[in-house]
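Quarterly update from the structural biology core.
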Amino acid sequence: MKEAASEFLAKKRIAVTGVSRKPQGHGGNVVYQRLRQRGYEVFAINPFAEEVEGDRCYPDLKSVPGGVEAVVICTRPETADETMRECADLGIKQVWMHRLNGTGSVSQTATRYGREHGITVLDGGCPLMFGPTADSGHKMMCFLFTLAGKVPKKV
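Predicted structure, tokenized:
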């Protein structure tokens, strides 16, 4: 998992799906903000918003000018399937399905589809738990959630 997380975070153009117009307590917004703060070129994806966090928001991945190298899915699991198909169609090879509590954004059918189409799928945990995006709180969560089985051991 650590190797896959490092590979994912080595990408510089990352889309975050499910970023909300109401950022309070929404995991997608936290991921979006942190990636932006750490110098990533990050793109908000929400088909129901034109602007999020003061930035332009895109309705889908194909609308991002110049495309992206990686995607963090922060939507309901049933939406992850459609996003994974779009990633495969666009040739995006790195996808992280965010999960801290419950199922989060993880969809087993999306995971299977992505892997069958050559995508590295990180199906759980949070990109803010690793590498240059981590803070002490997320590092502690990584330790605890790994013990609880919410961070995949194998990608």
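Helices lie at 2-9, 27-37, 77-90, 108-116, 136-147.
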